[in-house]
UniProtKB/TrEMBL annotation:
GO biological-process terms attached to the record: DNA repair
Recorded superkingdom: Bacteria
One annotated GO molecular function: exonuclease activity
Source species: Actinosynnema mirum (strain ATCC 29888 / DSM 43827 / JCM 3225 / NBRC 14064 / NCIMB 13271 / NRRL B-12336 / IMRU 3971 / 101)
Domain PD-(D/E)XK endonuclease-like: 24-270
Protein's recorded name: RecB family exonuclease-like protein
Keywords tagged on the record: ATP-binding, DNA damage, DNA repair, Exonuclease, Helicase, Hydrolase, Nuclease, Nucleotide-binding
SUPFAM superfamilies found in the cross-reference section: Restriction endonuclease-like
Classification via InterPro entries: PDDEXK-like_dom_sf (IPR011604), PDDEXK_AddAB-type (IPR038726), Restrct_endonuc-II-like (IPR011335)
Region (Disordered): 1-27
Amino acid sequence: MGWPTVLRMAAPTTSDRPVRRPALSPSRAGDFKQCPLLYRFRAVDRLPEKPTKAQVRGTVVHAVLEDLFALPAAERVPERARELVEPAWARVRQERPEFAELFGADQDEEQADWLTSARELLEGYFGLEDPRRFDPESRELLVEWELPSGVLLRGYVDRVDVAPTGEIRVVDYKTGAAPREHVEGKALFQMKFYALVLWRQRGVVPRQLRLMYLADRQALAYSPDEGELARFERTLEAIWEAILRAGRTGDFRPNPSRLCDYCDHKALCPAFDGTPPPYPGWPEPGAVAESAADRVD
Ligand code: SF4
């Protein structure tokens, strides 16, 4: 795997996922850029990966922030957010019972510490903005757009805010502990992806892309312009072309880097004396849609 991702609970399992056209998501595009073989393992072979506590904590924190905005504005206070943590974790566990296995024999204490760390991230959130002061337009928004070349872009946006003037702000919460310099480039790629899709869907270039790093209580704001997003669109088309080329031949090459330390598939990687499973062929429509672990964090 790459840097910690958030495991999105809303994603259906493979068996009940409706058949959809292959699509490009920010995470899968990022995987291919990082390492074509990693892309293959995740999107084509669909090899399972073991979630980390940080990933699952990110899922819980995202769920709490989503629930928080469902409350009346006056109730969106730190204490209420803290109260929402346990129910959110129970919901996540119900949907993915295997997450309970994250904790060892000392389960209670370990889990309590982990839940405390989720509450600390929420404290970090309140250090960045006051959610009583606005109502988001959307939370956990699925966005899709087909480019003229036929590339289908698909992703989930944490939050979209629309000002009375019509200006759009795209917000993404980052809950991982990875150093900022490692995640920033990937995060901006993801945000430009969302900005492009929203621009194409709504005809308005988002005024601001806002990344909120909850662990270190810092926010990064970025304003894209039309020319930049148009160039980014061409970049995505080129990435998809390259994916399709590799998909036809099965030639997904490893690209070793420091990020290999975070890859679940090292044992199968030729860069580490491993042997990949036989290439299963380019997947049928639907199989390259977003998986449960598809967001940079
Ligand atoms: S271990 Fe291999 S497959 Fe994984 S990221 Fe590194 S080069 Fe790619």
